[in-house]
C-alpha cells in the first residue's frame, strides 16, 4: 500500500494516542496543518485502506443572525432598556420617557416593553417599576449575554442551555441554525499495527519545475501520479450553433449522395411560389392570413410566356389532358410579391431554367408562413428540398432516396403514407420512427404533368420538401421548437456535437 505524505503524517499522529478518537482540531494541531482539507483528504484515503475509522455525527450548529450580530456588538435590547431604567430618576420612567430616549427605536419599543415585563418589571400608571429584588433579572441578563457570545462563533446545539435556546429561537433574527456533520477519526486494528518505520515522509513532487530538475533531490522523490479519470471543468469554447451544425451535416449527406446544392431568394412571386405548382388561385393557403404578401415590392414582373402557359393550364389543363381548375386565371395575382412559403419555389425555377438536363439537386433554406408561435410552430423555419429529374425517375427511387437520407441521419425506420399536394401525383407523407412513435417530417411526390409540361421537362421529376426544425427536434431531443432559437448559452454549450 502506497501512502501519501499527508496520510503518513496523519497516521503517525493517530498512533501517538492509538486508542483515542481524534477531533478535527486535535488532528490539525498534531499534524501542523491549518486547513481541514488535509485531514479530510488524508482521513478518507486512510479509511479507504481500512487503517482509520471515521465516525460521523449529525449536528445542528447555532450561530448569530443579523440581529444577534448587532446584539453581540452593542448588547441585547433588554440590557439597554434595563440599564436605562436603572439610571432614570423614578419620576422619569414612563412609557413616554422610553419613547423619547435614544435607547430603542420606535419599532423596537413594543418588544422592549415585553422584554422588560419578562424580566419582572411592571408598568404602573404609565411608569416602569423595577422588580424587587433585582438579582434574578440580572442573572438572566448575564446568562443571555453569554449565550449570544457562545453563538458568535457557531456552537453545537448540545452545548447550549436548552431553556435559553428555546427563548432565543422565538426572537426574530437573533440566532440561526445550520445542519452540519462532525467527524472523529480513530485507528483501526490494522492502523494501530502498521509499522512506524514505513511512515517516513518522502519528497513528493506534484509540479515538475526547471528549478527542481536543476537539483538532485528529485532523483529520490516520489512523483504524484496523474489521475486521468478525475472530473475536470469542461472548457467552453466557441462552436457552431446546433442548427448550423445540423445543416452542415444534411448538406454533406446530400453531397455524398451525388446531389448538387442550389439556392434561391426569400422574395418570390405568387406565380412561382404557387401558380407554377398548379396550386389553384383560390386555394386557402394563398390567403393573406397564411402568407406574407409584400407591399414592397408589391408586384414583380413575370415573363408573358409563363403567364400564358399557367393560364392555359389552370383554366383548361393546357396540353396535358387535364381539365385544369376552370374559372379564370389572374396574371395580376401571379405577379404579387411574397416571402416564399416553401422551398419548392426554388426547385421549380431550377427546372424552368434547365428542363432538358437531368439533375439531382437539393437546397436548405428559410421559409415564411403566418403561423402563431407555439411548441411546434414558428413563422420562420427551414425546409430541406430536393428533386431528381432523369430518365426512369420513379416513386421507388424517391422513397429509396428519402430512406437513405434518414438512415444516414441515424433514423433507419422510415415509412411513407399517401398524401395530397396540388403539384404531385402520387403524393406522399414521409414519417420517421422516433422513440416508438411515427413522426411526420415532410412531403414528397412526382410532379404532375400540369407542373412539368409548361416548363418543358423531359423526364419525370421526384420532389420532396421536409422540415428542418422538426428533424432538429428529433436529433436534439426537444419537445419545444422555440428552444432552438432562444440562444440559451447553457443549453447551447451542452448540445451534442452533430
Ligand atoms: N412543399 C411541400 C411543403 O411545404 C412539401 C413538398 C415538396 C411536397 C415537394 C411534395 C413535393 O410541405
What is this structure's SSE topology?
Layout: H1 5-16, H2 24-31, H3 36-48, E1 52-64, H4 66-74, H5 77-87, H6 95-100, H7 106-118, E2 122-124, E3 127-129, H8 135-151, E4 155-156, H9 162-169, E5 175-187, H10 189-193, E6 204-205, H11 210-214, E7 222-223, H12 242-256, E8 260-261, E9 267-269, H13 270-273, H14 304-316, H15 331-334, E10 337-339, H16 344-353, E11 359-368, E12 380-389, H17 395-409, E13 414-421, E14 424-434, E15 437-447, H18 449-452, E16 461-467, H19 468-476, H20 489-493
Parallel strand pairs: 6-7, 8-11
Antiparallel strand pairs: 1-4, 1-5, 2-3, 9-10, 11-12, 12-16, 13-14, 14-15, 15-16
Helix pairs in contact: 1-3, 5-7, 12-19
The structure holds phenylalanine.
Amino acid at each position: 500500500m502506497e501512502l501519501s505524505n499527508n496520510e503518513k503524517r496523519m497516521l503517525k499522529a493517530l498512533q501517538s494516542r492509538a486508542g483515542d478518537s481524534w477531533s478535527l482540531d486535535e488532528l490539525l494541531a498534531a499534524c501542523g496543518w491549518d486547513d481541514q482539507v488535509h485531514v479530510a483528504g488524508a482521513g478518507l484515503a486512510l479509511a479507504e485502506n481500512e487503517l482509520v475509522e471515521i465516525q460521523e455525527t449529525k449536528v445542528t450548529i447555532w450561530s448569530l443572525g443579523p440581529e444577534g450580530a448587532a446584539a453581540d456588538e452593542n448588547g441585547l435590547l433588554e440590557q439597554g432598556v434595563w440599564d436605562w431604567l436603572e439610571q432614570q430618576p423614578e419620576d422619569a420612567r414612563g412609557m413616554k420617557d422610553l419613547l423619547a430616549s435614544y435607547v430603542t427605536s420606535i419599532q423596537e419599543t413594543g418588544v422592549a416593553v415585553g422584554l422588560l415585563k419578562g424580566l419582572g418589571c411592571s408598568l404602573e400608571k404609565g411608569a416602569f417599576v423595577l422588580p424587587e429584588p433585582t438579582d434574578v433579572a440580572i442573572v438572566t441578563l448575564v446568562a443571555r449575554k453569554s449565550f449570544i457570545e457562545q453563538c458568535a462563533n457557531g456552537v453545537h446545539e448540545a452545548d447550549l442551555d436548552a431553556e435559553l435556546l428555546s427563548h432565543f429561537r422565538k426572537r426574530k433574527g437573533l440566532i440561526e441554525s445550520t445542519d452540519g456533520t462532525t467527524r472523529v477519526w480513530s485507528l483501526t486494528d490494522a492502523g494501530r499495527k502498521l509499522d512506524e518505520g514505513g511512515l517516513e515522509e518522502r519528497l513528493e513532487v506534484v509540479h515538475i519545475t526547471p528549478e527542481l530538475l536543476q537539483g538532485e533531490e528529485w532523483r529520490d522523490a516520489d512523483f504524484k501520479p496523474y489521475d486521468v479519470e478525475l472530473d475536470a471543468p469542461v472548457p467552453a469554447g466557441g462552436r457552431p450553433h446546433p442548427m448550423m451544425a445540423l445543416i452542415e451535416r444534411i448538406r454533406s449527406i446530400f453531397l455524398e449522395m451525388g446531389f448538387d446544392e442550389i439556392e434561391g431568394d426569400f422574395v418570390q412571386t405568387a406565380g412561382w411560389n404557387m401558380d407554377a405548382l398548379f396550386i389553384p388561385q383560390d386555394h386557402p393557403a394563398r390567403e393573406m392570413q397564411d402568407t406574407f404578401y409584400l407591399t414592397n415590392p408589391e408586384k414583380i414582373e413575370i415573363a408573358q410566356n409563363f403567364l400564358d402557359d399557367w393560364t392555359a393550364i389552370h383554366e383548361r389543363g393546357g396540353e396535358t389532358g387535364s381539365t385544369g381548375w376552370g374559372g379564370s386565371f389572374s396574371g395580376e395575382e401571379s405577379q404579387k410579391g411574397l416571402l416564399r412559403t416553401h422551398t419548392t419555389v426554388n426547385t421549380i425555377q431550377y427546372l424552368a431554367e434547365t428542363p432538358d438536363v437531368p439533375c439531382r439537386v437539393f437546397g436548405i433554406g428559410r421559409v415564411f408562413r403566418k403561423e402563431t408561435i407555439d411548441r411546434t410552430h414558428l413563422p420562420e423555419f427551414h425546409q430541406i428540398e430536393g428533386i431528381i429529374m432523369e430518365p426512369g425517375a420513379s416513386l421507388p427511387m424517391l422513397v429509396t432516396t428519402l430512406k437513405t437520407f434518414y438512415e444516414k441521419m441515424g433514423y433507419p425506420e422510415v415509412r411513407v403514407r399517401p398524401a395530397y399536394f396540388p403539384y404531385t401525383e402520387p403524393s406522399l407523407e414521409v414519417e420517421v420512427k422516433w422513440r416508438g412513435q411515427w413522426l411526420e417530417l415532410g412531403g414528397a411526390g412526382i410532379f404532375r404533368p400540369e407542373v412539368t409540361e409548361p416548363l418543358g421537362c423531359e423526364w419525370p421529376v421526384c420532389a420532396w420538401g421536409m422540415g428542418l426544425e422538426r428533424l432538429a427536434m428529433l436529433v436534439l431531443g426537444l419537445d419545444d421548437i422555440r428552444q432552438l432559437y432562444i440562444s440559451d448559452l447553457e443549453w447551447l454549450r451542452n448540445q451534442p456535437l452533430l
